[in-house]
Structures are given as structure tokens and as C-alpha cells.
Write a structure and sequence with these properties.
With 391 residues, this protein is α/β, with parallel strands linked by helices. It is built from 15 helices and 10 strands. The chain has helices at 22-28, 42-45, 48-58, 75-88, 99-111, 185-203, 211-233, 238-252, 265-277, 281-296, 301-310, 321-338, 345-348, 355-364, 380-389; strands at 11-14, 33-38, 62-66, 92-97, 132-137, 149-154, 159-164, 172-175, 371-373, 377-379. Helix 6 runs parallel beside helix 8 and helix 11 (301-310) packs across helix 12. The radius of gyration is 20 Å and the shape is globular. The model has no long low-confidence stretch (mean pLDDT 97). Bound molecules: 5,6-dihydroxy-NADP (NZQ) and zinc ion.
Amino acid sequence: MENFEFYSPTCFVFGKDTENQAGKYVKRFNGSKVLIHYGGGSAVRSGLLDRIKKSLDGEGISYVELGGVKPNPRSGLVYEGIDICKKQRVDFVLAVGGGSVIDSAKAIAAGALYDGDFWDYYQGKWIEEALSVGTVLTIAAAGSEGSGDSVVTKEEGMFKRDAHGDVIRPKFSILNPALTQTLPPYQTAAGITDIMAHLYERYLTNTEEVEVTDRLIEGLLLTMIHEGPRVIADPDNYQARANIMWAGTMAHNNSVGVGRSQDWNSHTIEHELSALYDCAHGAGLAVTMPAVFTYQLSHNVMRFAQIAVRVWGCQMDFANPEATAKAGIEAFRNFLISIGMPKNFEELGAKEEDIPKLVDILCHGDGRKGSISGFITLNEDDCTKIYKMMI
Ligand code: NZQ
Ligand code: ZN
């Protein structure tokens, strides 16, 4: 295991009706003027936004609103939010929605205290200062409610890039699993896929002797395999939703990723798909991961064989561990298909003829130097082959 520092200061408030305490938690973390940030309408339709406002009113906290965050959030709305925060002297950004809303809120919070272009942060500058962020989560997926990361797409060039900093970790995150019951099945499944991706990308490590985090990841993956189909069959199953929601947070606040190198090649390759085709990030991952894993398999066959045996119940073939490793990837792929995720470019809405463009933006766009690096380093040629495997 490698040395590590684990810093995850978010206060998680979990359970039924907890959104009604939003005002109390904004006050506890010293917010006095709030920007309520939300998405395309689900929070309005469900009445959630009204409950949040009532809760803020109850604490005497004033607020301004900015809705309209699109999935795969764009830079344009971030600039608008920054402007509002500066002009209205906002000191707290409250995200009501999913990963896209939360990431947009984090970008606004960072940009509001920065004199330069907020995009600098998405080109590698570490975020040192930001307004406080709080979240009311409505979809179990991205894990942004407990992460120090934000992913935004710059409209000029459609570069989808991430930024990092401990100061954008939410001060609090309100997690009411019942709020996720209104999700369309496809979004529920995309969320399940993303959560599993966050676990897999940590499992694929080059660090030896990381049994504790290996076992935690396996436990969370087994939970997803158990609860995923239950929630797809019965969207109102509160307990299944609750287990998935907490698994989603645990999968990405890095408690299961400490002390080990991590992969993230699947995420980096997928981000170009959701940037270009505006598909759900989780759906893009469902198509990307089997291809990337198969391509990376020879780098450490035993790692893939281990997860195949421990998580997917495959029989270890000692004479041919590669067969076991491949059986594990196939079992994962079949699971994703069974919950309604796409299996190839066509089902995702991606086009073979776009591959050169995807590879160019992936390997050279916005300051990249010709390759990406994770479990292994992948150059243009590797990435082209991987995208072709998804056809
Ligand atoms: O905009 P509204 O109307 O709210 O609709 C949303 C959106 O269309 C809908 N939705 C959310 N909660 C709902 C609901 N519909 C009905 N009932 C509810 N309770 O679901 C759609 C997807 O929402 P979105 O926020 O985009 O989903 P998700 O949480 O999967 O976030 C995806 C974004 O997060 C990024 C992804 O790249 C993508 O841009 N990621 C962020 C990470 C981070 N910050 O740590 C890590 C992840 O790996 C990921 O890259
Ligand atoms: Zn993800």
C-alpha cells in the first residue's frame, strides 16, 4: 500500500425527508446568501425545489436561483452563475440535482472567487479557493456529492475536462433515496453503471498488497449486482435505492481508493463520447469499459481474474487465467445489458466515422500531449483500436 492522506470533510445527511433540513445545514456552514442551482426541470416538477426554498425561508436565508443545467454541464451557464454570485454577493452555492448540477455548482463556486477564467482550473490549475457548496442529491451516480472533482464541457471545442480541489468538496450533502424514485429507468441504470465504473477504475491498480481496499470495492460491487436488478424491477424499492445511493457516495469519495494507483482510462475515453454525443455518462461507460478492460487485460491478467472470481463468481482456470479474466469482463458486460444499458456504438448513438475526431480531441485536445495514462499508457493508436472495439 502507498502512503496517503484521506480528507473527506463532507457532512452527509441521509434518509427520508432530509431535504427539508437544507436551510438548517446552509446556516450551520455559515451560508447567508445562497445561489440555488438546478437542472432542466425534474426538481421543479417533483416539488423538491419548493421544499428547499421553504426550508431556506424557514431559516431566514435569502437566495437567488439559476436553473437550466444540462446533463454534461456546459461552460456557458457556469459563466452566468459566476456573474450572479459576484453581483449578488452570494456566499453559498446549493446544488439541487445530479452530478451535472453539482459539478456546475462547484465550477461557479470556484469561479466566483477567481479573477481569471474559471476554465484555467479545467486545464490543470488546482482549486485553492471557492465559495461553500452544499448539495441535495437526486440521482445516485457520479459521486460528486462526496468528491473534490468537477467535470464541465467547454462549448468552444466541446472539451469535457475535470478540475480538482478539496475546497470544492461539498460542506454537506443531503441524500434522500426517495428522491431518486422519479428517475427514468435508463438514468437509474446509467447511474448504477457509473458507480460500478468508479469501483472498477480503482480496482485496476498497479499497487501491490491493497487487500483492504480490494475487499471494500468487491463488497460494493456485490451490493450493486444485488441491488441494481431489484431497483430496475421495482423503481419504488426504497431500501434498494438507499443501498445504491450510499454505495455511490462510497464508490467515489475515495475511501476505497486510498493507498493505491487508479486507472481512469475508461472515464477519460468515455468523456469524449458524452461530450460529442451528449449521451448519459454511465451509458457511455457501459460501452467503453468492456473494450478498455479487454485491451488492458494482458497488462495484469491476474487482477482481472481475481475480480472475475471474487465478484462475478467465475471458476478460476489455473491453466488459463486469461479465460477466467475474460469471463469476468463478459459477465460485467451482460449485467450492464441486463439493466438496459447500450452495448455498442450504434446503441449509444455514436458513429464509426467520428473515431479520428474522438481520438484527436482525446489525445491532443486542450493541451493533451498525445496519450492518456492510467492502468497503462494509451497512445493514439491504442485509443483508435479501443474505439473500434466498441463498434
Ligand atoms: O436536469 P433534470 O431535469 O434534473 O434531469 C436530470 C438529467 O436529465 C435527470 N434527473 C436527475 N435526478 C432526477 C432526474 N429525473 C427525474 N428524477 C430525478 N430524481 O437525470 C438526468 C441526468 O442527470 P445528471 O446530473 O447529468 O446525472 P449524473 O449524476 O449521472 O451526472 C453526470 C455528470 O457527472 C459527471 C459526468 O461526466 C456527467 O457530466 N461526473 C462527475 C464526477 C465528479 N464530479 O466527481 C465523476 C463522474 O465520473 C462523472 O464523470
Ligand atoms: Zn463516472
